[in-house]
């Protein structure tokens, strides 16, 4: 036991975080693995908001219940595509249309095990690996008992998928890595203290961060019902049907369920940090012509969805003090076949040291009292810079492009964003106008030619508790009740 404890502490130190602490130090932070980041993105893409998805969460096709799925396309460990099912096409079919032969040697991360229709095409494209979330597959095996024909057809499809898998050069598998120690605690702490939550708490004297706890619990309940199978026996039956019988024995089964629960908990915690609350949202105070498309903001649900993607990226940071994530999307002139509508992914990044550098190559110090020569600022590649560097699509001047950043862009990044032709910035503004020792945020407020949407109260509403979305009025009274209860 003593040796095991010592080994755990050594591994914790090597991973960059401490053990035995009540509150995590900012200089010792855990990181999300890339595999888990891609998995979380696939789950989150399944929830991409659209008018079609609000009307129908499931599509009935040929007696089968086809569940929506999210898909992340990765090449050389870099995301090159984010997709989700539409009412007409599955996520795998959309990937074929969007990427074609460029899928060769790519890794695909699905939020559901793909059906035989999708699998045969993406295997034929020469993909390297197909990973999927080990729960209910795309052709659902959780159908009503009153319709045995539906269940039989779903089982036939599962058998076809297994046969395609066994005869494929691509590796079709489950990739779930356990979270490093204290990862959930760290994400919960940073989400509670995130700028958006703190701004709500400070702007509303009658509220405190208890509303965040209530929101998080609601998200956990919602996402567990979507991505987990509550009954263990039912889960085992589905795993055996989709060819994962080797995972049905303990300790593999219990470990699998725990890893799945942890990832769903992470997703819910991060999603709650950009909440649907009152009149708060992403609004612009710039005086721009309302009739110009490039200045029109996104629907709040989509803006929040993209900002949560940036928040997930921030947990890959190599910066020991500030984790920043950035993601770039653009909007075509007409709606495409993707479940994302006219929007398409351009690139993403997080703050990190230059590619190929070792841990000790550059300074990590950020103490203002230290010698400026041993501070990190001149060596860190910012999230916005990485998103622009590793973009998979060019930014077209005639299309609306937007970048989502988890904090205010600094003076290094603002000219780059404008020079790249990005039309909109969605960000927080806590540091806007401030000048620090080695980094300043003066240019963000002075920026012209790019529309800025910051997290704030809707400037067109005087009543802070009046909801801009009629569908969220019930939530208003729920949060008022929670506040009164805690008081």
TrEMBL record:
UniProt enzyme class: hydrolase
Cofactor field: Zn(2+)
Record EC number: 3.5.4.5
InterPro entries: APOBEC/CMP_deaminase_Zn-bd, CMP_dCMP_dom, Cytidine_deaminase-like, dCMP_deaminase-rel, Deoxycytidylate_deaminase_dom
Keyword set includes Zinc-finger: no
Transmembrane parts of this sequence: 263-283
CMP/dCMP-type deaminase domain segment(s): 43-149, 301-441
Keyword Kinase applies: no
Reactions catalysed: cytidine + H2O + H(+) = uridine + NH4(+); 2'-deoxycytidine + H2O + H(+) = 2'-deoxyuridine + NH4(+)
GO terms, biological process: DNA cytosine deamination; nucleotide biosynthetic process
SUPFAM superfamilies (alphabetical): Cytidine deaminase-like
GO cellular component, one term: nucleus
Key words of the record: Hydrolase, Membrane, Metal-binding, Repeat, Transmembrane, Transmembrane helix, Zinc
Entry's Gene Ontology molecular function annotations: cytidine deaminase activity; dCMP deaminase activity; importin-alpha family protein binding; protein homodimerization activity; zinc ion binding
PANTHER family tied to this protein: CYTIDINE AND DCMP DEAMINASE DOMAIN-CONTAINING PROTEIN 1, DEOXYCYTIDYLATE DEAMINASE-RELATED
Family that this chain belongs to: Belongs to the cytidine and deoxycytidylate deaminase family.
The protein's name: Cytidine and dCMP deaminase domain-containing protein 1
Taxonomic source organism: Anas platyrhynchos platyrhynchos
């Amino acid at each position: 036991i003593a040796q095991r404890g010592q080994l755990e502490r050594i591994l914790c130190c090597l991973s960059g975080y401490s053990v035995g602490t009540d509150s995590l130090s900012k200089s010792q932070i855990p990181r999300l693995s890339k595999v888990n980041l891609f998995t979380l993105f696939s789950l989150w893409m399944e929830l991409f908001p659209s008018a079609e998805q609000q009307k129908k969460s499931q599509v009935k096709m040929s007696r089968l219940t086809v569940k929506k799925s999210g898909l992340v396309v990765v090449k050389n460990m870099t995301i090159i595509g984010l997709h989700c099912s539409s009412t007409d096409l599955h996520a795998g079919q959309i990937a074929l249309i969007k990427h074609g032969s460029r899928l060769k040697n790519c890794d695909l991360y699905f939020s559901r095990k793909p059906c035989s229709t999708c699998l045969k095409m993406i295997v034929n494209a020469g993909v390297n690996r197909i990973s999927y979330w080990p729960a209910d597959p795309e052709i659902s095996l959780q159908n009503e008992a009153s319709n045995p024909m539906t269940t039989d057809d779903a089982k036939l499809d599962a058998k076809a998928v297994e046969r395609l898998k066994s005869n494929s050069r691509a590796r079709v598998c489950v990739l779930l890595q356990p979270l490093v120690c204290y990862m959930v605690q760290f994400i919960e702490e940073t989400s509670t203290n995130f700028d958006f939550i703190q701004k709500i708490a400070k702007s509303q004297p009658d509220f405190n961060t208890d509303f965040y706890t209530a929101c998080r619990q609601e998200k956990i309940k919602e996402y567990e019902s979507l991505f987990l199978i509550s009954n263990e026996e039912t889960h085992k039956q589905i795993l055996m049907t989709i060819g994962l019988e080797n995972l049905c024995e303990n300790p593999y089964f219990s470990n699998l369920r725990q890893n799945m629960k942890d990832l769903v908990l992470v997703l819910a915690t991060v999603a709650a940090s950009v909440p649907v609350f009152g009149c708060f949202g992403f609004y612009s105070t710039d005086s721009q012509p309302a009739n110009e498309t490039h200045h029109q903001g996104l629907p709040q649900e989509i803006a929040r969805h993209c900002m949560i993607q940036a928040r997930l990226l921030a947990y890959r940071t190599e910066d020991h003090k500030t984790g920043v994530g950035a993601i770039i999307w653009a909007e075509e002139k007409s709606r495409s076949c993707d479940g994302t509508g006219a929007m398409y992914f351009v690139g993403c990044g997080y703050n990190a040291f230059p590619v190929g550098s070792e841990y000790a190559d550059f300074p990590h110090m950020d103490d203002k009292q230290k010698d400026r020569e041993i501070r990190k600022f001149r060596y860190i590649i910012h999230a916005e810079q990485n998103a622009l560097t590793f973009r998979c699509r060019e930014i077209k001047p005639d299309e609306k492009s937007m970048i989502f950043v988890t904090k205010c862009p600094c003076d290094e990044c603002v000219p780059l964003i404008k020079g790249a032709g990005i039309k909109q910035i969605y960000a927080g503004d806590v540091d806007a106008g401030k000048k620090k020792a080695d980094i300043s945020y003066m240019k963000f407020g002075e920026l012209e030619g790019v529309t800025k949407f910051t997290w704030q109260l809707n400037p067109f509403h005087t009543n802070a508790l009046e909801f801009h979305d009629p569908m969220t009025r019930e939530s208003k009274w729920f949060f008022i009740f929670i506040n009164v209860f805690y008081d």
